[in-house]
Specification:
- By secondary structure, this protein is of the alpha/beta class.
- The chain folds into two domains: 4-220 and 323-340, P-loop containing nucleotide triphosphate hydrolases (Rossmann fold); 225-318, Rossmann fold (3-Layer(aba) Sandwich), CATH 3.40.50.1970.
- Helix content is 33%, strand content 21%.
- The chain has helices spanning 4-26, 52-65, 93-96, 98-106, 118-128, 196-206, 249-258, 275-285, 297-301, 328-340; strands at 38-43, 70-74, 85-86, 111-114, 134-138, 150-156, 184-188, 213-221, 225-226, 238-243, 260-266, 291-296, 315-318, 320-324.
- Strand 12, helix 9 (297-301) and strand 13 (315-318) form a beta-alpha-beta unit.
Length: 341
């Protein structure tokens, strides 16, 4: 039985609620605050798994390489702390959330902050760091209380927001019409064989405004690295896969091309690993130390605390980056124009 159709009425009620909320903001009943520093929001209309973090990392590299003082502000989803925090060399994943921690680990020279209130967070970070020229607001598109200077909306190739439904029938957490507030729309996780005809088909479906720019990105899997420095990487051929991300299918498909994947332990997005999970993996590996654990960057950030429990087992991480399909310079020039004015 297809239960989704029975959820459509609930999704409609949710959509009406979103429409009312957005009207109250649009009419000034609720106040939106423009940050004191130039801000770029990277967000989506759906629940998780659209590829915001790789795009945020791409923008960090772009601005930092052009000597633009850039910082990142995140909510710090599922962190075990509250309030405004800045990441430091001693910061742990559970203090700022796995995605913010991943960014902090990859870009230790970039200032990373977390705060439930984007408004409070951006005022505090800029007040304490006036040299910052641009703030990347991670996953803030649905937070109408903050009015970013520019908005980048990310939507997955395999589930465009125009084809999605409001929760619980679908994954939409904001009104579809909010896409009109985006300066850039990025279709993420595109297949490697994306061609001009497919780009044109999607462009027609999205029906963007004349002032909006559309780009397409794909994932590039990078060479494997050891989570703990003394572990072997190159000679590994067999593994168990550990994922706690929203949509692991593409990652697992990639792993199967690289390794003999004997087991996939699939957990919910942002899952908090426990010692019981570690024991289960060890039991599956047994005495065969030629079997490694292979996982994602985001999951790896939550495994660092278990280093002592994982002694003797190789933990391999597969980093990812994104590429734009033929439009790298156009995208970069467009973004750089924001801060060069």
């Amino acid at each position: 039985m297809n239960l989704v159709k029975y959820l459509y009425p609930l999704g409609s009620f949710y959509g009406w609620g979103l429409q009312l909320r957005n009207r109250l903001y649009n009419n000034g009943f609720f106040r939106s605050v423009r940050p004191p520093v130039f801000s770029v929001c990277i967000g989506n209309l759906a629940l998780g798994g659209t590829g915001k973090t790789p795009l945020t990392e791409y923008l960090i590299q772009l601005f930092a390489s052009n000597e633009i003082g850039v910082a990142v502000l995140s909510r710090g989803y599922k962190r075990k702390t509250t309030g405004f925090l800045q990441a430091t060399p001693e910061t742990r994943s559970e203090e700022i959330g796995d995605e913010a921690f991943q960014i902090h680990q990859k870009f230790p020279d970039i200032k990373v902050f977390v705060c439930e209130s984007r408004v409070e967070g951006v005022y505090r970070l800029y007040g304490e760091n006036p040299e910052i020229q641009i703030v990347l607001l991670d996953d803030a598109f649905q937070h109408r209380a903050i009015d970013a200077n520019k908005n980048i909306l990310v939507t997955r190739y395999d589930r465009l927001y125009v084809d999605d439904h409001y929760i619980p029938a679908g994954t939409l957490r904001d009104h579809k019409i909010r896409a009109n507030d985006a300066d850039i729309v990025v279709v993420s996780n595109c297949p490697s064989n994306l061609d001009v005809a497919e780009k044109n088909r999607i462009t027609g479906k999205l029906r963007l405004l004349n002032n909006q720019k559309l780009f397409f990105t794909g994932i590039d899997y990078q060479p494997p690295v050891a989570l703990f420095s003394d572990q072997p990487v190159d000679e590994i051929t067999r593994c168990i896969a550990i994922t706690g991300i929203a949509k692991p299918e593409k990652f697992i498909d990639y792993l199967k091309d690289q390794y003999d994947v004997i087991k996939h332990f699939d957990y919910p997005d942002h899952y908090d690993f426990a010692i019981e999970d570690i024991d289960q993996w060890k039991s599956r590996i047994g005495e065969d130390k030629s079997i490694a654990i292979v996982t994602t960057e985001k999951d790896a950030s939550r495994l660092l605390q278990f280093e002592k429990d994982l002694i003797g087992i190789s933990i391999i991480v597969i980093p990812i980056t994104i590429h734009l399909y033929g439009d790298e310079k156009k995208f970069e020039n467009f973004c750089m124009a924001w801060v060069k004015k």
